[in-house]
## 1
Amino acid sequence: MEKLQNLLRKIVNFISKYKVIFVLSVFLLLIILILRLFTKNTMKILQPPQPPITTQINYLNLISTEPNPPFYKSAWSTDLVVFAFDDYLDPDTISYQISPYTKTRAKTHLEPSKTIEIIPLEGWKQDIEYTISINASLSSLNRKTLQNSIEFTFKRSVPEPEDPEFPYPINEKF
């Protein structure tokens, strides 16, 4: 008991001797504790809810092609072939091959686009079957990828004069 009393006396003497320092230390400790509690609560409030982690893989899907296969009835050899997808494409991942080889370019837009427009630079030749293959490396800005490469086959044929697609007059050399 005496030891406890001696210890208490020493503490009281210490506090009375260094009263200002002790009060400031306790005050700073309280402020630190209050700030720590406050920042923990506000951090929880300010953090956006996290989406659940899923193992499902989202694939990029081809929605439509223009023209619709198998026959491309057009009187114009410079018509586009358009592939439409379900998400905005990453232009750096567009890669395709055409067989038989024809000079083309893929039109990409400055703004995000869901389409690839393939423009023939020398024209589609009549009655030749073309195959356009889009590589599976194509991806969207949301990191969706193609599950498999896409093959699109078509043949350009000129509409007959009775056909509603027949333009009049035809100003193109065949």
Note: The chain has a mean pLDDT of 78.
## 2
Amino acid sequence: MKKLSLFIFCLVLASFNLIGQTLSDSLIKNKWIAVYTEALDSSWVSPYDGMILSFESDKAFISHIFFDSAKTYNYEQKGKDIFLNDSIFGNVVFISKDSLIINTGRWMQTKYIPIKNSGILIDEKELIENHWIYKTELNYQVTIVFTEMDWGRYPGETARVCVKQEKRPRYRNFDNEKWSLINHNNSSVLSISLSQYDPMIHFVKSINSDSILFDCWFHNKIYHSTLKKIPSINENQLDSIKEKIVNKNWHISEIIDYANFFGDDTLFNDIQESGLYVEDTMLFSKETILNKELSFAFHDNYKYEIMDNEEIVLNGNWKLSNSGKQIVLDYGCRSTDFIDLFETEENSITIGKLDMFSTEKQIQYIEYYYKIKLK
């Protein structure tokens, strides 16, 4: 009986060690990226989404898609428990070639996905130099402009700014978001924030001449999504547009979309009450548009001025987008840096622009998109 008990104990111990060794081998084979965090109870959790884990025999490495926070830890595994610097990091509750789930304490569970060798890398320069249509299988569609501008709101952030432009008939919405591109294991992972917080993590499936196809992880679901390049026009066509708009003072001759964006005073005041609070850097009042006092000047040295009743309120650099459909102001990293070109004639241009409008209350503003004809 004692021999049988000893045999069973040795068998259990061997199995335990085998499980531990198999788990360790599986962890070390991959670099893992966190795609979803959920609370195991009613507690609030700080999501690990975007964290990147990798392991060696006795070291663990942790970084993040949006931060310069790479750290190295002493790594030890005891059964299914992972210890970093002699403190427990979490308990592995599931692992396969496609996913890793770790419980942190009794209150949080995080799902990780391996960065597999796809043999496909995104050209970052091409990503930045072009404007893109982003579309998901849920028919969510926006234009995205990736910039080199640092997000830089918190210490150590390496995320950059992208501008999302949602365009529908008689409606425009512009948002600044964070983005990052990491390359590992001969693969690219593109991350774009939603509402400047939750990352949508994109794994490349394929790339062709004008589009990139992804599997996008968001809130523990996979969505098929596409980045499609907005077609460029040639240099001669860009020069033709430029020649029509430079070295003239453009004044408002017609407010094409008036009621939709301003309406009567009651509508404006209703929205005003729920305006956002920012520093007192108001540029325009609604009367600037309604009284046709706003004017624009674009020069052939790629300088511009925007004037309120002949007083310069904005100036800087401008350029045409590769498609010729937008004028991009300055670094093209703010929602107000883009002017839509709807029509370009010899003596008139039709534009659309989002701008900040002051209200009667100090340090309060509203953003409105307006469509106007200039002559």
Note: The helical segments are 2-29, 124-129, 235-245, 265-273, 286-290.
## 3
Amino acid sequence: MKNRNYLILGNLMAIVFGLIFLMLTSESSASGYYEYFDPISWIIIVVPLISLYLIAFPDINQFSNIKIMLYKMKWIQDMVIYLGIMGLFLGLSFLWGSIFSVGLESIHYTPVAILSSSLGIAFITIIYSVTISFSFYVLAFFIKGKDDIPSINLGKRIFVHITAFIVNVIVFILASVIGSTGSGISILSSIGLFNEYILLLLFGVLVFFHFQSNSSIAMLLKNLFCDFEESNDSIKGQLQAIFNTKRFVMGLCLIALIFIPTALFRMLSYVISDSTQIFNILIGGSQLLLWGFIIIVMLTTLEGKYNYKLFQYDGSIIEDRMFLPKFVALPTILYLLMVVLLFILSNVLF
């Protein structure tokens, strides 16, 4: 079966799994099926997934060796999770900015209602990403292929890369515009595009990657927009630099999150006039995590491309299997626990 058929089948399986769990959940709750339908969340995940796949792997219309095919299934599972978490933090960045800028008192609903509704919509992105990731995990058990399928050189594919990159940018802008319209605040202030700390993060990532052994920022960026040959040593060096940089980024995000509880308890030691001020401490952390996962998504795309090149050279694949459970799950769970804590405090103490 060709690779594009696996992508289609995986998404169809995700719809089936989603409908099953939706019926199980809705039978025992007052909410209807429509509460789980959010086309924007689906677009944020599926459209970038396909476009990033086109950048990373040139064989979407071909048959693949079973080893590289299994790797691509694992790559898709991880990428979907990263895209879902990125969409979550994009939505939360607008939510916290809206609450702090406008104030819950200016909204005609109760604080519990507006927070519950907004958080429910934000978590739909995670539901979609986990369901799609699980569908590809199940699909990987049924992959059958051969070990002697030759690769086909399709050239530099400049048009495909540029088109896929533009599609990703359009999807991000579309989601940001919708978030800005719903929250009533500007896009730039919500996502922190010109925030000096976000710019410092981007600069620090570039410096860190530059000083990795046998790495090149120019070659890394060039791979986003075309395919070209590199030496075996260069590919391995770039892969190791990508692994180290991804851990560096999530390490910075984790450290930033650790400072939030300290700021929270220091804030509680003063008299706070309204509960909206308590959510201000989440704005910076949400923006940092948003851009952290944008970097992770781009580096994971290039990681897939370099592993595909490495497989063409010597049939080997280099993976960082512990990155998601150790460096992604921990900061994300910590952040969500703090959101729950702040949600409780905002309704109990104020």
Note: Residues 3-348 form one domain.
## 4
Amino acid sequence: MSTTSTNSRPLLIDRPWSSRGYFTSKSILSLTDVNLAGMELLLDGTAPNFDGALLDTVVAVNHAPTPEAIALFLAFNGSVQSFTADLVVPVAWQELAAAPAAGLPARVELELPTICVPVPAVAMGPAGEPSAGRNRGLWIARGVRLFAARISPGATALVKGVQVLALGGLY
């Protein structure tokens, strides 16, 4: 078999991965508030035998009657005890509309950064059309943690909360 450049090959994963966060009382005040108590760990890149992951799709669902905001953060620190603002980077955030009084909850797919490898888009847009997220995603290297957080400056608890579903693959 002839050799080819790795830039021409698609990024392949060994096994699928998904994670879910649910926010009712947990929240942070802003994108610069790195309060660990207000965040939900979606992927721990410090786990043994973790070689890396690709986050392909993030869907947020708002069950609350108020508009909400959700954000994703990458933490580049080795331990939770050293969780500091200079090592935590917000990488994606999205406003969510309020859930209608009667009917389905509000749903949105977060726009992830562009990456240099082909990534299939697996989620559907809000009206059921194919997602425009092809070649968007997050590469999560060994030692990096992925967190999600609900941004609520008033820190109001919700009876019905916000769900975040992250989909991707592990190496």
Note: Residues 20-123+130-170 form one domain.
